[in-house]
Structure formats: C-alpha cells, structure tokens
Amino acid sequence: MEKLDQYKDLVLGYVVENGLNILIAIVVYLIGSQVIKAVVNGTRKVMDKRDFDPTLSSWLRTLISISLKAMLIISVLGMVGIEMTSFIAVLGAAGLAVGLALQGTLSNFAGGIMVLLFKPYKVGDFIDGAGYMGTVKEIQIFNTILNTPDNKVIIIPNGNLATGSLTNFSKEATRRVDWTVGIAYGNDYSKAKEVISKMLEEDARVLKDPAYFVALGALADSSVNITVRAWVNAADYWGVFFDFNERVYKEFEGHGLDFPFPQMDVHVNQVK
Fold this sequence. Notes:
Helix Hairpins, 7 helices, alpha+beta, 272 residues
C-alpha cells in the first residue's frame, strides 16, 4: 500500500506540475489527428483525379498517414516533458541497419513505386525486359508477373525493370511488320514487286497511311532480297506476318518466281 501511495503521489505531482502542458498536448493531438485525416483525404482526391494506380495510391496514403502520426506522437510526448532525443537517435540507427540489411528488397520496392508512378507498362501489355518476354499479368510493389506466350509464369523484381532497358510492344496503337523476301537471280524483280504489292493491297488489315514499302534491299550471295514493310494495328501484327509468308510461298511459283537456295560455284583445275 505504501508503494501504491507513493506512485499515486508521484503521478499526482507530475499532473499538477505539468497539467497545462498535458492539456495542451491533448488538444494538439486531437487537432493534429484531424489535420492528418484531412491531408490523407486530400491526397486521395488528388491521386484519383490524376488517375494514379490504386495500389500505389493506397500505399502512399498509408505511408503519409503513418509518417505524420509518428511525427505528431513524438511532438506530443516532447510537449509533456518526455525526452525524445535518445529515442529518435536509436530509431534512426535501427532504420539505417534495417535499410542496409534489406538493400535489395528496398531497391525492388523503389522500382515498384517508379513503375506504378510513371507507368512504362500496364497490365495486359506485351513487354520485353530483364531478359524475358511476356504479357503483364500483375504489377505488385516488389515484383511484376508475366505470362509468356507458352503460358509460363515469370516473376521479375521491379528493380530490374525500373533500371534496365525495356521494350513495350503494346504501347502504341500501330506497329510495322518487316519481311525480307528472297528471289533467285534471273527472276523478274518488277514482277515480284508487283505481286507483293498486290498481296498487301488485298489485305484489309494493312493500313493505307503510312503506306507500305517495297524495294530492292540487297544483292546477296545467293538471292535478290526484297525489303517489305507494312503498318498494321498492333492486334493484327502476327496475323498479317504469318498470312503474308504463307501467300508468298503459295503464289510465287505461279508467277515464275523462284526461291533461291544457298549455292557455291566450284572451279576445278586439272593438273597434268
């Protein structure tokens, strides 16, 4: 009982001595909590107007709320006479140690923030990055999940995608299809150009603007190479590519156009 009375006296004495500071601290905490709530709600509205990714928006609001509340609590505790300098120093040292230990993870975390903020790709895009190609299935804070054309699931750390080179095949609405068509030496190049142009004209998926391009690209060792380029909608890329190859193979022979084979002339000198 004596110890309990001593504690009561200590608490009562502290309250009497710091009563005004405690009252001010309570008021500051209540007002600060409302201000923090207003700031978080305002941030949410701004992010919604600017079409931020929902995952990034939710995470940033949580981070802002926790940071502001921590600052508010430290300020309130300091107002009632609790020394916070040592606590902040220990907290900073602990944060540094954790940061060094989780350096790779934090790199992926920062990469995820950059990906969600600047949007170099989105869910559904077909990309080539970090040595892998596939359709983006999901974008997380630490990783991006891809589906490959043969239905494999690949998980790539966001740090690699944020800092490395990346090709997004779905970013633009149109793409250019390129072919190199080889004909044998002695074949009629003008006829080949006419047949190729007719094929492109008959394919409704080939865009008129920009116009397709057909020209003699190179005089190779065993063939005359014709460069063919055509613009299509991104969704039609592979269909146009494979269909054109099939038509060339089926129709060239009927127009007297031959596909060359690698060949070599051998000169034999007889020694008597």
